[in-house]
Amino acid sequence: MSYIQGYDPDTLREIVDVAACRERLSEIGPQRSLPALLERVWLLKVLGELDESLELSEQSVRVARMAGTRKDLLRARILHASVLTERRAHAAAEFELSTCAEEAEGQEWPGITAFALQHRGRTRFDAGDFAGARSDFKRVLFLRQELGADETQLEVAMSMVEAAERRRAHSLAS
Predict the structure, then answer these.
(1) CB contact at 8 A, 90 and 48
(2) Residue 124 CB-density burial (10 A; 0-12 exposed, 13-18 middle, 19+ buried)
(3) Which of 35, 37, 124, 152 is the one with CA 20 to 30 A from 131?
(4) Which residues of 70-88 are buried (b: 16+ CB within 10 A; e: fewer)?
(5) Residue 162: CB partners within 8 Å, gap ≥ 6?
(6) Whole-angstrom Cα distance, residue 103 to residue 111?
(7) What is the pLDDT of residues 158-174, one digit of tens each?
């Protein structure tokens, strides 16, 4: 089940079914597996419970480091950085996401590269770097096309490119 109902065109944040997210959070409960931790981090983040989300995201990075694969660790770090973005720690988030994107690209993991770049684009967008965001979103679109992503994923990437272009044009006109 997808909890995401769309993306806010002004903030690019997920629009979620809050009741379904809360229900899923209670279903997961205190499970300690890495997939459960990562899901809890994301649910708490989109519900705006950022302190708990940050704490769990740090724990998920530690768990991934000790017991996960390199891909697991990258996913956990990307999710942690996305929580930093929500907490407006843009420089730290952008640095972590850049490092993750470079590592994923070096390992030839285009899906994880796209995941990191989409979050870095959102971080840059949130920080007012619309040209940087646009560049990241265009790269995400290209990677997802290469991966044969479905129309929904491609539309999301395209809408993010367009949002960055609109905001950049608006900021240049001001």
Answers:
(1) no
(2) buried
(3) 152
(4) eebbbbbbbbbbbbbbbee
(5) none
(6) 12
(7) 999 999 999 999 888 87
